[in-house]
Amino acid sequence: MTLHHNSLPAHLCSSLLLLQLLSPLSLSLLPLPPQHHPVHVPSLVPHAPLPLSRSRFSAHTQLDFTTHCNSSCFHRAEREAGKEQLTEKLAFETLYADGSRTLTAVDVEGEEEFEATAAPFVQPSWKRGPRLKPRHKRVRRQIYGADGRFNIRGDHFLLDYPFSTAVRISTGCTGVLVSQQHVLTAAHCVHDGKDYVKGARKLRVGFLTPPSINGTKAGQTSAKKPLVRWVRVKRTRVPKGWIQGPQEVSMDFDYALLELRWPHRRPFMRLSVAPSSEDLAGKRIHFSGFDSDRPGELVYRFCPVEDESNDLIYQHCDARPGASGSGVYGRVWDNTLERWERKVIGIFSGHQWLEIDGENRDYNVAVRFTPLKFAQICYWVHGNRLDCSQD
Fold first, then answer.
1. pLDDT digit string (tens) for 275-313?
2. How far apart (Å, rounded) are the C-alpha atoms in residues 1 and 6?
3. Which of 12, 234, 286, 324 has fewest C-beta within 10 Å?
4. Which of 2-11, 146-155, 252-261 shows the lowest per-residue confidence on average (mean pLDDT)?
5. Residues of 225-245 as b/e, b for ≥16 C-beta within 10 angstroms?
6. For residues 121 and 147, what is the distance between their CA atoms, to the nearest angstrom?
7. Contact present, 343 and 361 (Cβ < 8 Å)
8. What is the distance between the alpha carbons of residues 147 and 170, in angstroms, rounded to a whole number?
9. Are 338 and 329 in contact (CB under 8 A)?
10. Are 354 and 361 in contact (CB under 8 A)?
11. Under 8 Å CB-to-CB from 386, ≥6 apart: which residues?
12. Rg of the chain (C-alpha set)
């Protein structure tokens, strides 16, 4: 049975959804552990940061981020498999709260390790382009057929994992908590590829506070919207792969990490190298965000992966502007815990028109965390290389 937000009262729809997601039956239906070798994550060796001129904060936030890609840009990974090109893209800018900036170049430790790690991921998974699906009837951009999004309401949903890991970004996007002090979001939410957006000057992260905590007694129904508690960002990091090149190329690096001024007290979601969709439980991805057409509401959705390239996850999860930067997660097999765990494997970026062999198809797109991107983000979070292996 498929539930849609218009078919049932909101509180009943949300309750059925949570039961569906967390019931023992759904857990018992998870597939057997995937049979593959652990992924080796390379080490990034940072150089000393170089000071840059102060940002002008002249860009405007582009919430409805759309790119176009043809076979030439789609197969670019085959031409850009060299170490120099990738390490240049893995360099990163750091923006501080006072507006100052630095640039940090990186090396990848071990030539042989790099080649062994990069080879399976740099080559696109499609040799002739994606397996094109029949065209879906469009209601409006980023909504495919019947709207399958769910509004998440109530203390027992908003404050419970995994919904509690979704946060608002003051520029109008969404982010996901990935440590006690760090938030991942989309790079285009803070930087347009040339300069930081105006709102990045005093960037903040918003934590939803349910109505009951704001004075409504427990058990009572309230029409109040959740309040938002805002926390200032101390440091923002953006990969050089986003800052250079045209957008259809830089979309592969559409992610940024925000460091909060002080730790939060909420659960966060661990990161993982993105496995093949075949190794995701149900071949499904999930994400929660603050879609612009439902102001003040946290909106959850899930859908199957349609296809994937080296750097992107192509899917038809319903979404609207504002959901950009949401943490895309799936149930990934954890070898250490020996169980399926929800982990962030990418960041929702936006929409892409993909033209292959004369066929034009539209997808919603998330950036995949390759081993190199995982190593970069992990270094940003931990500040060292020792905590950044994934066995």
1. 999 999 999 999 999 999 999 899 999 999 999 988 999
2. 14
3. 12
4. 2-11
5. ebebeebebebbbbbbbbbeb
6. 33
7. no
8. 26
9. no
10. yes
11. none
12. 20
Burial of residue 383 (CB within 10 Å: 0-12, 13-18, 19+) is: exposed
Side-chain half-sphere exposure of 7, counting CA atoms within 13 A = 13
Dihedral of CA atoms 282, 285, 286, 289 in degrees, nearest 10, equals -170
Q: Token pair 């850009």 is at which residue?
A: 80
Helices of type H across the chain: 10-22, 24-28, 71-74, 76-79, 83-90, 111-122, 155-158, 240-243, 247-250, 371-382
Distance of CA 376 to the CA centre of its chain: 15
pLDDT tens readout for residues 110-121: 545 554 444 343
Contact 322, 292 (CB under 8 A): yes
Rounded to whole angstroms, how far apart are CA atoms 297 and 265? 21
What is each CA distance from 351 to 153, 208, 318, 339, in whole angstroms?
27, 27, 11, 33
